[in-house]
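User: Fold this; tokens only.

Assistant: Input:
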Amino acid sequence: MAILQQGFKFSILALLLCCAPILIAQEHEEGVEYTEYKEGPVSSKSEVEDYIQHHIKDAHDFNLFSYTNDEGERKHFGFPLPVIIWTSNGLTTFMSSEFHHNDNGNVIVDKNGLSFAKIHSKIYELEQGASTVSFDEDHHATNAHKVLDFSITKSVVGILLIGILLFIWFRGLAKQYKTKKIPTGFGRVLEPLVIYVRDEIARPNIGDKHYRKFTGYLLTVFFFIWLLNLLGLMPFGFNVTGQLAVTAALAIFTLIIYTASGNADYWKHILWMPGVPVLIRPVLAVIELAGAFLIKPFSLLVRLFANITAGHIVVMSLIAIMFIMRQSLGIVGSSFLSIVLSVLILLIEILVAFLQAYIFTMLSALFIGMAVAEHDHDHAHDGTGHDVADAEDVRSDFI
């Protein structure tokens, strides 16, 4: 139960850490390139590519589906989300549904005496008196200023949803361990997964002496990433773990933990490597510092971001086959080919969803284990590598 209670604290911290970079990532420097997404049904290869790029990005509203009626009007079904921005006049709030297209095709909203432009899903404040977005010869916006965007975007909704589910599930599991000693109901589904993360990821990589301290974080990261990956495979338009800000936040969280937990041996091996010539030690120190503060977190964030984003692009590209090839294969043939290929890739993506959560958690545990490892010790070990004196029952960590 102690480990699960630690997980609650990490859940709140993870939510704050993952939400904040998404909000800050709304900022862009002046001179942003403007690319307008084409509204309406897509049929050509270029339109499909634009739609996929638009779909995998974050959004200020939640669009479930769209269609074009017989009159040629584009109808959207979904709901708006709160827009919360800090402008030259202070805090400004409104619903994303207030954005509309003006005569020039730009998405503009007027609020508190200011005009705001929505350029490629990003919000900018226009200069005083401007009602349209101006562009230079390179098609860059020249009269749009950055704002601090604290809006509740679609990715933030996904993070909050999964965070609430994790809190409810594991709080219930911890209560069952405290009262019944043996979980029942949905707790029986969670228990083997918790034990797997503890015994197969945390304990072997961190060691028997320190693994309890970090298992709560590893549990949070594993379930958080896994459930967000699965949520992204559902037809709701979520692509949370495909947002670079989210994966960067998770990587930074791991970086902070293993940096703050590093013992004297860890820093000695980084700053002044023992057992090598003195002249080589400064060079190795630079390499080790770059590995600890740049290469390790970068590998964590890029691996998760790239694999999840690529999976979304592949699935949506296969679905788009029915629109691109319907003239050559016919509606029935293109639809059948698209559905079969999409289902097969989707099954692979379900495996990838678990695999990426496992890899991120495993590498986090490995980096933490390297930071807390004690190089001068003499413990009695059993055949599995665990300390004999610390051998316990499977559930003892939670009681």
